[in-house]
């Protein structure tokens, strides 16, 4: 049964990626679908361990949440669900699952950053992303976590407060030379040219983002 669900979820991911929100039923339908997918992950006593199923459901969730965010529709995942997702992803051996889980944190966080009273949740998201960016063994996942951090803390009073509370600037300054060295040491031979290109862009964006945070601190 779970294999059938996995195939259906893969189809859903493809549909969401190729259709607009109205064709998929509008805001209410998208929220309902995202909420249903979250119950597939969080409704049981523990996060599913079947990697194919987890990869399919998290990919579909990412697509749905991305569309929801792009239409400024209210997100439907609770902070507890986000943290559970993050913790489950860090224990998963499948890189794409970890990448998509990190992306979901970024999508949700960037939406929450536009709302009032979300600094505490943004701190949780930021801390989780920092953890992944420094401790995950895969550079692609490290890069995705950094990219998500850039999105979450790009702008807004809530994001500024959260960034200060988790000491984001010094953490990224400490990480910067490590990330650069890791790309130089592990990049060639282990990652594709396309992945290396993305990682190089993230490296440049990290430098720029640190510069942005330094200006914010001086305000």
- Annotated CATH architecture of the largest domain: Alpha Horseshoe
Order of helices and strands: HHHHHHHHHH
Q: What Rg is obtained from the alpha carbons, in whole angstroms?
A: 17 Å
CATH class (first level) name of the largest domain: Mainly Alpha
Q: Give the strand content.
A: under 5%
Based on secondary structure, the structural category is mainly alpha
At the fold tier of CATH, the topology name of the largest domain is Leucine-rich Repeat Variant
Tally the helices. 10
* Uncertain ranges: none
Whole-number total of structural domains: 2
Per the principal axes of the C-alpha atoms, what is the gross shape?
globular
GO molecular function, one term: unfolded protein binding
Family: Belongs to the nuclear import and ribosome assembly adapter family.
Domain SYO1-like TPR repeats: 1-216
GO biological process, one term: ribosomal large subunit biogenesis
Structure, explained:
This protein is mainly alpha-helical. It has two domains: 1-76, no CATH class; 77-219, Leucine-rich Repeat Variant. 79% of the residues lie in helices and 0% in strands. The chain has helices at 2-18, 26-42, 51-70, 79-90, 95-112, 119-135, 139-152, 157-165, 168-190, 193-218. Helix 5 packs parallel to helix 7, helix 6 (119-135) packs parallel to helix 9 and helix 7 runs parallel beside helix 10. The longest helix is centred in the C-terminal third of the chain and has 26 residues, at 193-218. The termini are far apart. The mean pLDDT is 85.
């Amino acid at each position: 049964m779970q294999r059938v669900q996995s195939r259906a979820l893969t189809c859903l991911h493809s549909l969401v990626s190729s259709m607009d929100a109205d064709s998929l039923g509008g805001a209410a339908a998208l929220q309902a679908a995202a909420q249903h997918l979250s119950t597939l992950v969080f409704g049981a006593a523990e996060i599913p361990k079947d990697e194919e199923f987890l990869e399919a459901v998290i990919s579909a969730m990412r697509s749905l949440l991305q569309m929801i965010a792009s239409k400024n529709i209210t997100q439907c995942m609770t902070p507890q669900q986000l943290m559970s997702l993050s913790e489950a992803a860090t224990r998963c051996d499948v890189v794409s699952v970890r990448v998509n889980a990190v992306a979901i944190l970024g999508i949700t966080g960037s939406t929450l950053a536009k709302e009032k009273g979300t600094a505490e949740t943004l701190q949780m998201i930021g801390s989780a992303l920092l953890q992944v960016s420094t401790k995950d063994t895969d550079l692609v996942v490290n890069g995705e976590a950094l990219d998500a951090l850039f999105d979450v803390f790009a702008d807004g009073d809530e994001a500024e407060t959260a960034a200060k509370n988790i000491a984001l600037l010094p953490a990224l300054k400490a990480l910067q030379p490590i990330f650069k060295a890791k790309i130089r040491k592990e990049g060639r031979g282990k990652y594709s040219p396309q992945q290396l290109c993305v990682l190089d862009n993230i490296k440049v964006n990290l430098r720029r983002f640190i510069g942005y945070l330094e200006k914010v601190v001086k305000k």
